[in-house]
Specification:
alpha+beta
Length: 216
């Protein structure tokens, strides 16, 4: 018996929606805070002032500046408000992953500021020894015209090994998750998820706050 090749003519769709599970899926949050303009103005001023006096720690940010990972100890109201938003987000995400979870009580937050100007980028990296990581965008600068469409975008890499071993046009497994930052946008994902930031070309400063929730 010869089994005919699958074609549009002989393939009647099977209704599989109720039978399909996104097994081993990677939870990624993209949340836009609506009431962020005033907060971002305060954070921008604070971070640029801190840049003048803090040598920082820019291991992965090339041609840019990263503060020391001590933002949870900054005493200004704007930073305190941002930190509270991070905790709210972490609690909300963990409720999605496991509605019965109480493990937020076992996590400690660290956060730091990043300032990227023309030519700055983040190499591919993950956040070891952490559970959840994320980034909040304070300002995004003004991208220059004439550069590629990925200018300053963050890219989340597919964690599945060999997923592109058989590539073909239209494959659902070779998508690239690139996200253009916006002021007030927050991303959050498992800390093991590798990611990078394409080089930013433009004027002004691209300012963000990165954070980790670490087991204690």
């Amino acid at each position: 018996m010869t089994i005919p090749a699958m074609t549009e003519a002989n393939a009647t769709p099977l209704e599989l929606g109720a039978h399909t599970t996104a097994l081993f899926a990677t939870p990624v949050v993209r949340y836009q805070w609506s009431d962020c303009e005033g907060l971002n103005q305060q954070l921008r001023t604070l971070i640029l002032e801190r840049e003048k006096v803090d040598r920082g720690d820019a291991k992965n940010l090339i041609n840019g500046w990263s503060s020391s990972k001590d933002m949870t100890r900054w005493t200004d109201p704007a930073t305190h408000q941002l930190i509270q938003r991070f905790y709210r987000a972490a609690h909300g995400l963990m409720r999605v992953v496991d509605p019965q979870t109480e493990s937020l009580r076992q996590l400690q937050l660290e956060a730091w500021a990043n300032v990227s100007r023309n030519g700055a980028y983040h190499g591919v990296h993950s956040h070891p020894n952490s559970a959840w990581s994320g980034v909040y965008y304070v300002s995004v600068g003004t991208p220059a015209e004439g550069h590629n469409e990925y200018n300053g975008q963050i890219e989340l890499l597919d964690p599945r090994t060999a997923v592109d071993s058989v590539a073909y046009d239209g494959s659902p497994f070779t998508l690239r998750a690139r996200i253009a930052p916006e002021p007030g946008m927050m991303l959050m994902f498992p800390s093991w998820l590798k990611h990078m930031v394409h080089a930013f070309y433009g004027s002004g400063e691209r300012i963000s706050v990165a954070f980790n929730f670490m087991p204690v």
